[in-house]
Amino acid sequence: MSDKTGERLTHFDASGQAAMVDVSAKPETTREATARARISMQPATFALIARGEAKKGDVLGVARLAGIMAAKRTADLIPLCHPLPIAAVTLAFESDAAASAIDIIATVRTTGRTGVEMEALTAASIAALTIYDMCKAVDRGMVVDGLRVTAKSGGASGDFSAP
């Protein structure tokens, strides 16, 4: 696979060994990525979260903090991922009462030489897993799905917006 400049994208060095991609020649630009995930649950679990009555406390507040913390630790979790100076992380939650689901929207911004898609994906997934963890005693059947990058801007590969 190649980028728009025709340069081969790879995490392997000349001898075929795993290596971190050298981004030192790339210019620093403002980069932003948004990722989404969804957690579906039983209506009673959704109601507990909506009313703020979960036994473990403020589920969405804790999930927001967990997502922010996770974005900052992405390079510790994903092999060969560059550590980035994250400028901002925001997490939003959209309730879908009809489906007993919560959509998690994570946006991460940096000024650097590589993008923040992995950080946004990590933030959204960890926020969803935190909701699961805080509510699993009442609903072990929750489902986390739909994890995806929905928007990206900045960098040589250009902007992206999911349909």
Automatic annotation (TrEMBL):
GO molecular function: cyclic pyranopterin monophosphate synthase activity
One GO biological process term: Mo-molybdopterin cofactor biosynthetic process
Residue sites binding substrate per the record: L80, C81, H82, M118, E119
Protein name (record): Cyclic pyranopterin monophosphate synthase
Active-site residues (renumbered): D133
Organism encoding this protein: Acidisoma cellulosilyticum
Domain Molybdopterin cofactor biosynthesis C (MoaC): 20-155
NCBIfam families: moaC, PRK09364.1
Function: Catalyzes the conversion of (8S)-3',8-cyclo-7,8-dihydroguanosine 5'-triphosphate to cyclic pyranopterin monophosphate (cPMP).
Family as reported in the entry's similarity comment: Belongs to the MoaC family.
Pfam families noted in UniProt: MoaC (PF01967)
UniProt superkingdom: Bacteria
